[in-house]
Amino acid sequence: MNSWHRILGAALFAALLASPAASQNSGLIRLTDRDDLFGWEAVGRVEQGASGYCTGVLIAPDLVLTAAHCVFDRQGNRIAPETMRFRAGLRDGKTIAERGVARHVAPKAYDPLGGMSAENVRNDAALLELETPIQSALADPFVLHGAPRAGLRLSVVSYGRDRDSAPSWQRDCGLEAFGGGLMQFDCDVTFGSSGAPVFTRDGHRARILSLVSGGSSDAVGTTAYGMELPALVDALKRDLRAARPAQPANGGFLRVQVGEGHRASGARFARP
């Protein structure tokens, strides 16, 4: 996989302010049993019809936060909401709850064919409105953390390629740099991790600091990139309230379930 450093170049890293909180990745824990999943039920797999899947997280009973590039196909067209599903707490074919998607919104500034520019990473978030809410007793939504600061310790829960049948939890990784609405982490991410929530602790429960937009790997380790969320999510909520009612299903789209127990071919991940 080519390095984002060469793709984003000065446009991204001029916007990043160095933070001293680098660390080694600490490995992944597979959340297989129901007890393992306790507290992380609001993280799930966003399935995109025939296009593949991403990771998403509930921020309200009827709102899922994921990456903007997860609501576009590879030709830059919006994926029809009625072909998408959110499967909260999916593990080995079992879910905490499963819902269809009524509509979705992404920032107008996000260009699905624009490549890995700093502007695209900064705007790589989308909101999915579910057809019916998921009760908080089943999956308690997470709240946003706010602005980053030096020294934050992070964790990530995601569905990745070759580990997509259950969520994987990286308990500890670090915020390496931030600034200009962008963040850089040393968290372990791969295809399918797009849209995965990057958590930091605030009191007794994790809060969402950012989302995984994409990343790169080399002999040294994995680098992931994300965006600041509070203002972006507020704008997405306004756009969602202003959105027209969902249109009737387009006969040209088919609802397809991503297979369980084997490698899915459509795991989404931003890279060159």
From TrEMBL:
Entry-linked SUPFAM superfamilies: Trypsin-like serine proteases (SSF50494)
Keyword set, alphabetical order: Hydrolase, Protease, Serine protease, Signal
Peptidase S1 domain location: 7-272
This enzyme's EC code(s): 3.4.21.-
Pfam family, any one: Trypsin_2
Signal peptide residues on this chain, from the entry's feature table: 1-23
InterPro entries in the record: Glutamyl_endopeptidase, Peptidase_S1_PA, Peptidase_S1_PA_chymotrypsin, Peptidase_S1B, Trypsin_dom, TRYPSIN_HIS
GO molecular function: serine-type endopeptidase activity
GO biological process assignments: proteolysis
Protein family according to the UniProt entry: Belongs to the peptidase S1B family.
The protein's name: Serine protease
Classification lineage: Bacteria, Pseudomonadati, Pseudomonadota, Alphaproteobacteria, Rhodobacterales
Encoding gene (name): blaSE_1
